[in-house]
Design brief:
Arginase, Chain A, eight-stranded parallel beta sheet, 8 strands, about 270 residues, globular
């Protein structure tokens, strides 16, 4: 299944996210098999999470779609990082020993209480771990454990996130060191993988069309090599691509190798 999920409310950046998603939709074309219908408006409520009603409704639609299709492998095109609740919790319910590779400059590990912005795209990993909004939690097919998470490219972390990462001793390799990644996965007896790829994990000197570019990061060629090796060593059951704001095919060209290998990882 290739799922287009153009959610923008989690980042509260409508035009940029829609522009990027439209570029990706044009790039993948007929390979896209399913789409989550998203709200046109923010539908702001009194919930601490901004645009909560839209996010809840869209998450519910994604849940119903996955329940109906029962796909064994999922590639999700976003959208903001908040799209990950359903694909990750669904596949975690389907596969034992699921490792979650989180290519991202940001930890996405706030709760509604700790988040300064109240934007949900900074909360999905904590929500997936069972810490977050109770109603969104009820939609999740399962909860994950912190030891399933491996951060790659992380370099912009809020203080509450730092405390949580330290407390839970979560794997973190800002440079995405291949030998350490492989040895950690094997030590933890992980057999199946989900690869989340937020393009801000990349060095903005090489790729600048991410929603929130952060100085430093991983080179495109190295990111490709890491994903390629993970494909060879493990069963990749899901991948995602999030927070792209490219406005044309030309602006996608630098990351074509990553775009293609993320798809092929779940279509073999």
């Amino acid at each position: 299944m290739m799922l287009l999920f153009p959610q923008w409310q989690g980042a509260n950046r409508r035009d940029q996210i829609i522009r990027g998603t439209e570029s990706l939709e044009a790039y993948y074309g007929t390979k896209i098999t399913h789409r989550v219908i998203t709200e046109r408006h923010t539908m702001i409520t009194s919930n601490p999470i901004k645009n909560y009603s839209a996010i809840y409704n869209q998450t519910l639609r994604c849940r119903e779609l996955l329940k109906t299709e029962q796909s064994q492998k999922i590639y999700t095109i976003g959208g903001d990082c908040g799209i990950e609740l359903m694909p990750v919790s669904y596949l975690n319910n389907q596969y034992k020993n699921l490792g979650i590779i989180w290519f991202d400059a940001h930890a996405d590990a706030n709760t509604p209480e700790t988040s300064i912005s109240k934007n949900f795209h900074g909360m999905p990993l904590r929500q997936l771990c069972g810490d977050g909004d109770p109603e969104l939690g009820k939609l999740c097919f399962s909860t994950i454990k912190p030891e399933q998470i491996l951060y790659l490219g992380l370099r912009d972390v809020d203080v509450p996130e730092e405390k949580w990462i330290s407390k839970e001793n979560i794997f973190n390799s800002p440079e995405a060191e291949i030998s350490i990644i492989l040895s950690t996965l094997k030590e933890r007896k992980i057999q199946n993988l989900y690869i989340h790829f937020d393009v801000d994990a990349l060095n903005p000197k090489e790729y600048k069309h991410s929603l929130l570019p952060i100085k430093g990061g991983i080179n495109i060629s190295h990111a490709y090599k890491v994903i390629e090796l993970l494909r060879k060593e493990f069963n990749v059951v899901g991948t995602s691509l999030t927070e792209v704001v490219a406005s044309s095919q030309e602006e996608l060209n630098p990351i074509r190798s990553v775009l293609d290998i993320l798809v092929s990882s779940v279509s073999d």
